[in-house]
Structures are given as structure tokens and as C-alpha cells.
Description:
This protein has helices spanning 20-31, 44-53, 71-85, 109-141, 161-181, 212-219, 243-249, 251-254; strands spanning 11-15, 36-41, 61-65, 90-92, 144-150, 186-192, 261-264. The radius of gyration is 18 Å and the shape is globular. 40% of the residues lie in helices and 14% in strands. Helix 3 packs parallel to helix 4. The protein has a 7-stranded parallel beta sheet with strand order 3-2-1-4-5-6-7, with helices on both faces. Helix 2 (44-53) links the parallel strand 2 and strand 3 (61-65).
Amino acid sequence: MTTKGWLDGDAALITGAGSGIGQAVALRYLREGAKGVAIFGRDAKRLQQTVDAAGIDGDRILPLVGDVRSTADLNAAVQATVDRFGSLDVLVPNAGIWDFNRSITRTTPDEIESIYDELFDINVKGYLLTVSAAWRALVAARGSIVMTLSNAAFYPAGGGAVYTAAKHAARGLVAQLAYELAPKVRVNGVAIGGLRTDLRGPAAAGMSQRSIEQSFAKRDGQAGTNMWIPLHDASTDPVDSTGAYVYLGSRREAGTVTGAIVNADGGIGVRGF
Ligand code: NAD
């Protein structure tokens, strides 16, 4: 008996796939039978790490260097994906940055402007520009979009006000784009929770040299700090969050699902905000 992968024969394009959740989704999509995965990010070395991590499947990965704030980079990436794999079936807008839980009381108006401009440009405008570059190819393939959201798309305390507002905005993109692109393209989201990745902050605000991993590390050993995610602690491997991306990306399994968001955040919401 041949086991069929949930993404057999599909090609995906994933932004921010040189590390963290994007890398985990890329590797998982290959294991689910994707014919190819294009990985887009601004750092060639990181993209190579994803290729290396794929082992012999690395020959089905297409690394593409670019910035999600650049329409030219994104158009070139979509074209390269279709040229190499013959179609674009699943788009995963995922590249993002964080604001290190910066509260309004600790932030000057100038800092708010620099954090807001860079974070919204990447986390919200970047998602929109990514979809703008890809929708024609997705329509041609009757494909789908799976956006990375966050617990911060639903609840407070997953970031500061800027990050939380940006993830709420991305949640709005799921609803609106699902409406606009139906019936040809499905649009869904995965709201993942706190993970120890390399997630950085806005360079303009001096936050690009730190990562969320360091924030978690600071809290290691402090009583009760891992209890805020009911199902796991933040050291959970990002691969554990990838099942929802497989399901939502699968034409066969989720062909009637659009405008939906899977809360794969370890149950943060059951704390009752
Ligand atoms: P990560 O830093 O490991 O991955 C983000 C990737 O995006 C990096 O490889 C980075 O180089 C890339 N990137 C950043 N800005 C870019 C740009 N302008 N153009 C192209 N690439 C760019 O962090 P991660 O945790 O895997 O983050 C992935 C997504 O998950 C983000 O959207 C983040 O908001 C979301 N998220 C993360 C957490 C968490 O706790 N780590 C929780 C909820 C949601």
C-alpha cells in the first residue's frame, strides 16, 4: 500500500523560512509529499540551514533571498517558484518580527513610531504584498494561503501593543482575503503560541540583535514562568505546531475550509483573558 502525503504534488512558497516556524513548516511540507518548497528570507545563510536540515530532500527546496517589504523581490520569488516547480499551490506568509512585549508606559512616542513603522511594514504590509504577488498563481492552481498568526491575534500579553495590533490586523487579512479570493483560493491562519525561536525586533528601534529565545532564557528557573502555556512550555519544538499548516494547506483534507484560524498555541486562551 502506498501512503499518500497530505500535500502530494503541491509546491509551496514560505516566507521567513530560514529559521523557526517557517523552517519547520518547510521541512514538514516536504515530508508530506510536496513536490517542492520555495523558502524566502532576507538571510542567505539561514536559508541554507533549512536546505541542510532537509538532508536528501534538500534538492526539492528552492532558496530565495529577498525582503517581504519589496514587491520586486516577491514577484521574482513567485515567478521562480512557478518556473522551478510548475505551480504555486500553498503560500505561507510567515516572516515577522516582535516587539519584546514593549508596554506603552515604557515607550516614547519616537520609539512607538519606529517600532510601529518597521513591525507593521513586515508583519502586515509584508503579508499583503506577499499575497498581492502570489494570488494570480494561486488562482491558476486553485491553491491556498496559510498565514502565521499568534496568540497575540486573540489575547493580550503575547507582545506589546504594536505586535498585538499587528497580529489582530493579520487576523483581519485572513477574513477579508478569504472573502475576496473565494471560491478559487482558500485563506486560513494558524495562531501559534510562544516558542523559543530566533524571533527578532525592529532594527530601527535597536531591537534586532536580541531574540525571543533570550527573553525566555531570562525567565528560566523563575518559579511558575512556564505555566502560562497550559499544554507545554516554550521549549516545544516548532515542528509540533506544523500539523495545522499541513491540514489547512491540504486541498484534499481542508477543501471546504476557508477563513478559519486554528489556535495551535498550547491552550493559552483557556486561561481566560
Ligand atoms: P524567526 O525569527 O525564527 O523566523 C522569522 C523569519 O522571518 C526569520 O528567518 C527572519 O530572517 C525572517 N524575516 C524577518 N523579517 C523579514 C523580512 N523583512 N523579509 C524577509 N524575511 C524576514 O521567528 P519565528 O518565531 O519562527 O516567527 C515566525 C512567525 O511566527 C512570525 O510571524 C511570528 O510573529 C510568529 N509567531 C512567533 C511566536 C514565537 O513565540 N516565536 C509566537 C506566535 C507567532
